[in-house]
Every structure is written in structure tokens, then in C-alpha cells.
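Severity: low
Component: inverse-folding endpoint
Summary: output formatting inconsistent between runs
Steps to reproduce: submit the following C-alpha cells with default settings.
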């Protein structure tokens, strides 16, 4: 059974891989790293229901 943390980590890994695959990106990789650190430390609250919904929408398009 996957936990919310597993799903979040998988999403972050997917986002990081996408960043690595793109030569030029309008995504701020420093901001991504900051958000990853906040998630890891528990200082960022995540609405897992909304996150799951947004991830499904993103990957279905």
C-alpha cells in the first residue's frame, strides 16, 4: 500500500526527472530544491487529496 509520502516522493522524482530531461526550462530548480527540503523537514503542509487530483489531471493530459 502506498502512503501519501510515497506518492509525493514519486511525484517529486518524476518532476526532477522531467527537469533533468529538459535542456531549457522555465521551472526554477532552486525553488524545486527548496520545496523538496520543506517537504522533507515537514515544514510544508500538503493537501494530499488535492495533490493526488492535480497529479492525475497532469498525467492524463
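Observed output (run 2 of 3):
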Amino acid at each position: 500500500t502506498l502512503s501519501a509520502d510515497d506518492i509525493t516522493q514519486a511525484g517529486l522524482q518524476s518532476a526532477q526527472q522531467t527537469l533533468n530531461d529538459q535542456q531549457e526550462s522555465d521551472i526554477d530548480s532552486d525553488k524545486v530544491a527548496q520545496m523538496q527540503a520543506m517537504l522533507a523537514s515537514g515544514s510544508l503542509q500538503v493537501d494530499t487529496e488535492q495533490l493526488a487530483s492535480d497529479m492525475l489531471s497532469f498525467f492524463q493530459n
